[in-house]
Amino acid sequence: MAENADLLALLAEMKKSMEKGQEEMRKGQEDMKDEMRKGQEEMKDEMRKGQEEMKNEIQTHVESKVGEIKDHVNSCIEKIEEDVQSVRREIGEVKGEVERKIEEVEDKVQGKIEEVKEKVQLKIGDLEKRLSELEDRPINFPANPDLTYSRPTVKSLTFDGQTSWTVFKTQFDVVSSA
Questions:
Q1: pTM of the model
Q2: Which domain holds residue 56?
Q3: Which single residue of 36, 70, 83, 116 has CA 20 to 30 Å from 19?
Q4: What own/partner pairs with CB < 8 Å and gap ≥ 24 does 125-129 have?
Q5: What is the C-alpha separation between 156 and 134, in angstroms, rounded?
Q6: What's the sign of the alpha-carbon dihedral 17, 23, 29, 31?
Q7: Is residue 36 part of a domain?
Q8: Is residue 28 part of a domain?
Q9: Contact between 132 and 143 (Cβ < 8 Å)
C-alpha cells in the first residue's frame, strides 16, 4: 500500500504539476492574446496613419494640380481678353476709317450736287433770258408767195375697169398718203 500511497502522492503531485502547467499555459495564452490584440491595434493605427498620410499626399497633389489648372485657365482668359481688346481696337479703327471715307464721299457728292445745281441755274437763266427775248420780239414774217405752200387738190379716183387693179391700187395708195 505504501506503493499505492506513493503512487497516489506522485499522481497528486503530477496532477498539481499538470494543473500548474495548464494554468501557465492559460496565462501564456492570455498574454499572447493581449500581445496579439496590441499588435492588431498597432497595425490598425499604422494603417490609419498610412491612409491619412496617403489621403493628405493625394489631396496636396490634387490641390497642386487644381492650382496649375486654374493658373492655366486664368492665363488663357487673359490672352482671350487681350485678343478681344485687340479686335475691338481694330474694329474701332476700321469704323473710324469707314466714317472718314463716308464723310469724304458725302463732301464730294455735295460738291458735285452744288456744281450741277449752279450749271442748271445758269442754263435756266440763259433759257429764261432767251425766252424773254423771243417774247419781246414781234413776229413779222413777210408774205412771200414762194414760201407759201398750198396743198394740191386731188380729184377722187374711181375704178373704171380700163386700167389693171394693181395699177389703180398703187395710184390710190400714193394719192391717199400725200
A1: 0.39
A2: 11-100
A3: 36
A4: none
A5: 44
A6: negative
A7: yes
A8: yes
A9: no
